[in-house]
Amino acid sequence: MTDSKRTAARETARQYLEKDDPLGWFEALYRMGRKDPSLIPWADFRANPNLVRWLDDRAVPDPGRTALKIGCGLGDDAEELAARGFTTTAFDISPTAIDGCRVRFPGSRVRYVTANLFAAPSEWNRAFDLVVESYTLQVLPDALRARAVKHIADFAASRGTLLVITRARDSGDHEGGMPWPLTRGELDLFRHHGLTEVNFEDFTDTLETPPVRRFLAEYLRQGPRTPDPPNT
Ligand SMILES: C[S@@+](CC[C@H](N)C(=O)[O-])C[C@H]1O[C@@H](n2cnc3c(N)ncnc32)[C@H](O)[C@@H]1O
To answer: Which of 136, 149, 205, 214 to mutate to test the pocket of ligand 1 (most atoms within 8 A of CB)?
Structure first.
């Protein structure tokens, strides 16, 4: 992904941030992207390779295990989770993105929902065995991130796992233009919400051009495992 492909997204984000509407630009960009998908810089129409790698290292989930994809965009990560056996829910604040998922994957087993992370359905609270957040926190401005972390953490069930993949920086580094890399300190906030860090990778992602620094962090909510649903 070159910076020139980010120009429209950055300009749209800037306009909405100026209006004090930090979430409005996603729908605006997806609407623009209906005519020209290349305007959506993260839409590469394949599952996130770092999510695929993480899933490859894990056992197939037990039947009925649930997954939630945060900010699912055009659906590739959610489809990957469903293909791996998770009963998958995926949401995005942009109704146009969710329409795009339904058009791209007719007959999908994924439940696609238009929802705002900051006002998600209450039945999602502590409801998911696996929660996947990739690249949403890094497009939220600083002022929203701590709240976003709390909402994301709250989706993980007892014994549930949260996987976070994000751009990374040191706290002394300038954050530069959107997407804004996170610091380790920002990710540590997940541990304030009942989660234990079980894996933390700080690596150079050479699958991106030019390569970028990323964090991949895995958290677990301690506690008794949610009982399997009764056979019907
Ligand atoms: C950088 S994109 C990443 C999309 C997808 N995860 C991917 O990697 O292709 C961030 C996504 O989060 C969505 N998003 C941003 N803020 C959100 C919010 N408050 N609630 C739900 N979705 C949000 C955007 O619409 C966008 O689709």
So the answer is: 136
